[in-house]
Automatic annotation (TrEMBL):
Pfam families, sorted: Methyltransf_19
BP GO annotations: methylation
UniProt-recorded Gene Ontology molecular function terms: methyltransferase activity
Top-level taxon of origin: Bacteria
Annotated TM spans: none
UniProt keyword list: Methyltransferase, Transferase
Protein source organism: Streptomyces lichenis
Name used for this protein in its record: SAM-dependent methyltransferase
Entry keyword annotation includes Cell wall biogenesis/degradation: no
Gene3D superfamilies: Vaccinia Virus protein VP39
Length: 252
């Protein structure tokens, strides 16, 4: 569905039908997807170029859509290592596109579930080639709204961060119903009905994921307002059309 929102071709009739139902409820949902993608590009460039991060753990990577995290990071720091994680077997089928790497760097793909953080981190070390004793950028873009409260999302993020070295970063985006509560209640219903439980959260609830971390400027904001750049995705849109919070924070 996300690929369809982005105008991609790696989707199936069932995805398109479900996505069109969501679009009927909230016509701006393709804008949400494009803003999310543009934020990812800006955040990864910031982490690689300005923060000196050379290791990235991207959980919930989704179907490859160029440029991917490793392409953005390695364009700034060719030696960057990027480990992708997802549970969707469809993603596995297209994972070859995630495994191209600069000669100096490395990219890997792991099939693992974020609900088992210890297994994810062990695989990232053993198979993904990440050194958790050095700073890692943990990217959770458009993932946590698919972890309802009964799946312990806050505990999951805390357990992931506990193992990461000081100087690591968390970058995340999260859908919200703060600006258009009615349509987002319907979107949650549609996703849940199709077998993908979801839960949108308020600014205060999303801010909790950053507890104990140092948010970088401009803090937790609607995604198109996070360090906007010319031609870096939709910008002249309203907060309600975006309905996506974004932030980057450093582990002290």
């Amino acid at each position: 569905m996300y690929d369809y929102y982005l105008g991609g071709k790696t989707n199936y009739r069932v995805d398109r039908d479900a996505a069109e139902a969501v679009i009927q409820s909230f016509p701006a949902i393709p804008t949400v997807a494009r803003v999310n993608r543009a934020f990812m590009h800006r955040a990864v460039r910031f982490l690689a170029a300005e923060c000196g991060v050379t290791q990235f753990l991207d959980i919930g990577s989704g179907i490859p859509t160029e440029p991917n995290v490793h392409e953005v990071a390695q364009s700034r720091t060719p030696g960057s290592r990027v480990c992708y994680v997802d549970t969707d077997p469809i993603v596995l089928a297209y994972a070859d596109a995630l495994l191209t790497s600069s000669p100096e760097g490395r990219t890997t793909y792991l099939e693992a579930d974020v609900s088992d953080p210890e297994a994810v981190l062990a695989a990232a070390e053993e198979e993904g080639g990440l050194d958790l004793g050095r700073p890692v950028a943990l990217t959770l873009h458009a993932l946590l709204h698919f972890l309802p409260d009964d799946r312990d999302p806050y505990g999951t993020v805390n357990r992931l961060l506990e193992r990461l070295a000081p100087g690591s970063y968390l970058s995340l985006t999260h859908c919200t119903g703060d600006f258009a509560p009615g349509p987002w209640r319907e979107i949650v219903r549609l996703y849940t009905e199709k077998g993908t439980p979801a839960q949108v959260r308020s600014w205060e609830e999303v801010r909790r994921f950053f507890d104990g971390l140092d948010l970088v400027d401009p803090g937790l904001v609607v995604a198109h307002r996070w360090r906007p750049e010319p031609a870096s995705g939709p910008s002249l849109v309203g907060d309600a059309d975006v309905s996506l919070y974004a932030g980057v924070a450093r582990k002290p």
